[in-house]
Amino acid sequence: MSILQIVLAAIMVLGPLIAIHEFGHFWVARRLGVKVLTFSIGFGPALAKWRGKDGVEYQIAAIPLGGYVRMADEREGEVPVEDLPKAFNRQPVLARIAIVAAGPLINLLFAVFLFWILFLQGIETLRTVVGSVKPNTPAAIAGLQVGDEVVAVDSKETHNWEEVTYALIDRMGENGLVSLSVKSENATEPHIIKLPIANYLNQSGQDPLLSLGFTPYQPPIKPIIGEIVPDSPAAKQGLQVGDTVVEANNQPIKTWQDFVEVVRTHPEQAINTQVERQGKVVNLTLTPRMERDQVGTKEGKLGIGVQRQPFDIPPQYIQKQDYNPLVALVKASEKTYHLIGMTISSLGKMIVGLIGLDNLSGPITIAKVAGHTTDLGWQATIGFMALLSVSLGVLNLLPIPILDGGHLVYYTIEGILGRPLSEKVQQMGLKVGVAVMGSLMFLAIFNDLSRLFG
């Protein structure tokens, strides 16, 4: 995907979330009688500008990383006498709280709406059946077996692999034991196994399942080379279309997934490989090129593709869940609520050092992931938008001056004391807020660049 495509995908994903956030401020302000002067999507120079019949100046600006709603306010400039009753600073404290809170809250409601759309489609997923268990890993030591079905994580019921993943991410940065409730084949009741964790998922990009040593069931695909990218490591090191991989790194290769896992986990390392070619065994030494995935994790790439081949997923591994509109709304609300809690928990763990600061992502990583999800189809794009909408809503509610949450703290204190904080205190808070947000943005962009070029 080209840089232009990535940028356009990011705008397509972020644009509506920014617009809906600012619309929340705008709509509540207008309903409460506050005069709105400007509604801007983006910062910096205006690319397009027009004045609506309502007298508001609407604009789309050059830097699509936020937006703003400018209202009549005596603290920011002269307000005509006739507009003084409509000035933001003259509104009751509860009205100001409602206007400020509307932006983040509409982001959270928008996430519910997006998840509702997805749940309405019905969800066809693989059952949470374990497909492989890596030797000498926490899963293997605890006794997890291929064919076991994970029905709960830490007493939280899990109906699909996404729920398993989210439940494991809740333990990010922690030490101790993860409790899996698993149902073995032909068993009538599940049993509990406990997997030890230490600084779990502390490094950016770690897979929650692989970190414990197991993977979901996937339909087996034969390890036959169907495509080789010109000038790739595979092309230069002797692989040919039609080769069947039989051994890699002294491990028997039975499926395409087996070979992908060996290659992925050995970037820039020589892999002794045996392939079957026209009935003969050929020995090759393959060294995958190191690349970075969407979140910056190092992985090996050979520049190959699998041969197209028919495969069927046995019906016992598939589950289809259909929801009526009301149940879909409940499920969407529950998912949003869980993501809010997970986001707050992750931020707290990052602050106290349980999670590394390299997990913080900025606009470059968001753009790359947005580009990747648009390739996967509309459902993946909407799901990613919903996740981002939750993040925007929660982050904007943080009690940091300059963010909506910081203003809410000021207005709440004013409501309790009966008077606003002094101008000096507010100015000091503003400087602290700018310093904190500037540092976080610098760190996020540094992490992005490290993933891209490190």
Give an account of the 3D structure.
The structure is a single chain. The chain has 11 helices and 18 strands. It is α+β, with helices and mostly antiparallel strands and 454 residues long. Among the domains are: 3-32 and 91-120 and 375-453, no CATH class; 130-216, Pdz3 Domain (Roll); 225-309, PDZ domain (Pdz3 Domain, Roll), CATH 2.30.42. The strands form 7 sheets. The protein has a 4-stranded antiparallel beta sheet. A 4-stranded antiparallel beta sheet has the order 12-11-13-14, covered by helices on one side. The radius of gyration is 26 Å and the shape is elongated. The protein starts with a helix and ends with a helix.
Task: Give the tags.
single chain, four-stranded antiparallel sheet, 454 residues, Pdz3 Domain, alpha+beta, elongated, 42% helix, 18 strands, 11 helices, 23% strand
Topology:
Blueprint: H1 3-31, E1 36-51, E2 57-71, H2 93-120, E3 123-126, E4 130-133, H3 138-142, E5 149-153, E6 156-157, H4 161-169, E7 176-183, E8 191-197, E9 214-216, E10 225-228, H5 233-236, E11 244-248, E12 251-252, H6 256-264, E13 271-277, E14 280-286, E15 289-292, E16 298-301, E17 304-306, E18 318-321, H7 325-352, H8 363-376, H9 378-396, H10 404-417, H11 423-453
Antiparallel strand pairs: 1-2, 3-18, 4-9, 5-6, 5-7, 7-8, 10-17, 11-12, 11-13, 13-14, 15-16
Give the helix level as a range of percent.
Answer: 40-55%
In the sheet with the most strands, the strands line up as: 6-5-7-8
Q: What fraction of residues sit in β-strands?
A: 15-25%
**Separate helix tally:** 11
Q: Would you identify the regions where 5 or more consecutive residues have pLDDT less than 50?
A: none
Silhouette: elongated
Order of helices and strands: HEEHEEHEEHEEEEHEEHEEEEEEHHHHH
